[in-house]
Amino acid sequence: MQSVSQAYTDRVDAPMRHLDWRMLASFLKQFDNNIDFFTIGTSTIGGTDIIKGVGDVVQEWDKYDYEDFSNRVKSIEWVREADPPLGAVTLAMADITLDNHDDLFTPTNASGRYYGHLGNGRPVRLYIGFKDTEKIQVFVGITEGMPVIDEKAKTVRFHCIDFLRKLQETELNETVILTDSRTDQGISTVLQAAGLVTSQFNLDTGSVVIPFIYFPKGTKVGTAIRELTEAELGSTYMDENGIIRFENRTNWNSKSQSYQFTPRNTLDISTPDASRVINLVEVFSNTRAVEVLQPVFTNGDNALKFTDDTTVIGAGETKEAFVNFKDDEGDLPVTNITDPVASVRNDSGYTANTVADGSGEDVSASVSISAISKFSTAMKMSFTNNSSKTAIITRLEIWGEPARIQQKIYVLEKDTASITEYEEQPVKIENDYIQDEAAATSIAKLILADRAELDDERTLVAKGVPQLQVGDFVRYVDRTGNNTYYVKRISGILSPDGLKQTIVITKRTINQYFRIGISTIGGSDPIAP
Fold first, then answer.
1. Does the pLDDT of residue 417 top 90, yes or no?
2. Pairwise CA distance, residues 400 & 295, whole Å
3. DSSP string spanning 440-483?
4. Res 34: pLDDT
5. Residue 185 in contact with residue 171, Cβ under 8 Å?
6. Cβ(515)–Cβ(233) under 8 Å?
7. Tally of CB atoms within 10 A around 512
8. What is the pLDDT of residue 275?
9. Which of 37, 88, 289, 292 could serve as 211's disulfide partner, Cβ 3.0–4.6 Å?
């Protein structure tokens, strides 16, 4: 729940509410180096100063020169949702409809102020509040695609995504390899590899230590963050003020009830159909760990083949060879690869001979490696023949510390009674960072505890509660029960009809049995019932 004043809280619960809002955008994407940030005791609540992202570093989206288009707003729709089934990552989108009577936002209007500046990546901020109180930010992100023009209604509609959704699609331009690292350290490394600095995110200390974290070049940032967060049973999201946050599982225990819904402040409540039930869970994980220094490649009885598909290096020539590290499971990530040295054995080394079967003259001392490039699962070397004779690499052995699969985990848990009532509704989790069968079992049983019954998830239509956040714990009280739920999705609509939210709430089991981030693997805590 976002922090708001008592006056704001009173307006939320009032029978009559006078709404207020702000819509800021930077279509020209110009930086304002003199931006004033909100200062307690100096700035006015609901004024024009904006809240700095976090720490002493200005977030990229803080620094733009924003213009106020609040008086053009026809409607604002936004949604923030935790992805199923574990809610590891929360993403947000927004659709904004503005008055376009003067074609200001028409992309083909060459005389318009924003001509040529209406495409992807235009920063946007949305605020919702009430008259005589503050307006809190509910979305910060960027436009996606070109705006949609309605000539008859003279409106324009912008679709926007939050920065985390944009970041999710970014591919890592370098391989990430970590050993014996906590989940938050892994997430931090991934975010930095994507171009962020540590002051641009706020991460809980992870409680799960992963022996080997490996994301090859080209892995999407979203995939890496989701897998690490799932292993912790935590949550990663960009909050309404644009700060990327990671909460570990323990974080949930410190949360208290943030809001109570009753028939008085709820316009409608429904139970989703049986397709939302989960009553069978499969968990797959292949855990890796780095082993001691050992051979990870040898050319065996065959002469080394170079990239030009030959095996001979002429006198004075330099040729490249590319070797791949593999085992029975496929590509093999290797760390701490040692450089091959001529004639060396019991470590990385090679032998050069004038004859392929090694029966000729040993010319190893005259063949050097002039360049080496090491990759996570491969290595490239340039061999230079400094002798007056042809040379063949008859033996090449590369040593390193391989990260081999140590354990293949498979867990299947099901709720027989639920299957009997609703038929089988399965979900499959494949995550190589779930480190232990006990952890996998607990994950599966927690999902069943939360989702095996139809009333484990409900949808509320309520008068808008703008300060409510995905991840909040709320209580719903009616004549049939009094239960605590976890908010997994919020969609809001601000229109001439007022402010309304559709809120999906789901039960969240917080028990004292084994949980990643709380219990010790191999410890005494019992497995989830």
1. yes
2. 6
3. HHHHHHHHHHHHSSGGGEEEEEEE--TT--TT-EEEEEETTEEE
4. 57
5. no
6. yes
7. 10
8. 81
9. 289
Three-state secondary-structure class, residue 394: strand
What is residue 454's DSSP assignment?
G
Positive/negative CA dihedral, 410, 415, 420, 423: negative
Largest pairwise CA distance in the chain: 97
339: closest CA among 290, 396, 386, 282? Answer: 396
Measure CA of the first residue to CA of the last residue in the chain; give whole Å. 31
Instruction: Tell me the C-alpha distance between 154 and 148, whole Å.
Output: 11
Q: How confident is the model at residue 273 (pLDDT cuts 50, 70, 90)?
A: confident
Residue 492 near residue 464 (C-beta atoms within 8 A): yes
Beta bridge partners of 295: 399
Integer Cα distance of 247 and 257 in angstroms: 17
User: Are 343 and 328 a contacting pair, CB within 8 Å?
Assistant: no
Helix%, strand%, coil% for the chain, nearest 5? 15, 40, 45
Contact present, 83 and 165 (Cβ < 8 Å): no
What's the token pair of residue 52? 């700095």
Instruction: Tell me what the mean pLDDT of segment 433-449 comes to.
Output: 88
Tell me the C-alpha distance between 444 and 429, whole Å. Answer: 9
Task: Return the amino acid letter for 369.
Answer: I
Distance (Å, whole) CA 275 – CA 85 = 13
DSSP 133: S
Coil, strand or helix at 420: helix
* More confident position, 319 or 200: 319
Task: Locate 284 and state its tokens.
Answer: 């797959």
How many Å apart are CA 423 and CA 418, to the nearest integer?
7
Q: How many CB atoms lie within 10 A of CB 108?
A: 9
pLDDT at 41: 41
Q: State the sign of the Cα–Cα–Cα–Cα dihedral 85, 86, 88, 93.
A: positive
**123-130 and 135-143 as β-strands: parallel, antiparallel, unpaired?**
antiparallel
- As a whole number of angstroms, the distance between CA 221 and CA 194 comes to 7
Is 322's pLDDT higher than 60?
yes
| pLDDT at site 510 | 55
Name 350's Cβ contacts closer than 8 Å, sequence gap at least 6: 304, 340, 341, 342, 343, 344, 364, 367, 369, 393, 395, 396, 397
Strand partners, 477: 482
pTM score, whole prediction:
0.82
Q: Which amino acid is at 400?
A: G
From CA 431, how far away is CA 231, in angstroms rounded?
A: 7
Judge contact between 201 and 192, C-beta under 8 A: no
Backbone torsion region of residue 191, taken as left when φ is above 0, otherwise alpha when ψ lies between -120 and 50, otherwise beta: alpha
Sign of the CA dihedral running 300, 304, 310, 311: negative
* pLDDT, greater one: 198 or 105: 105
State the amino acid at position 299 in one-letter form.
N
The verdict on whether omega for the bond into residue 426 sits within 30 degrees of 0, i.e. cis, is no
Q: Is the dihedral of CA 130, 131, 133, 138 positive or negative?
A: positive
Greater model confidence, 61 or 180: 180
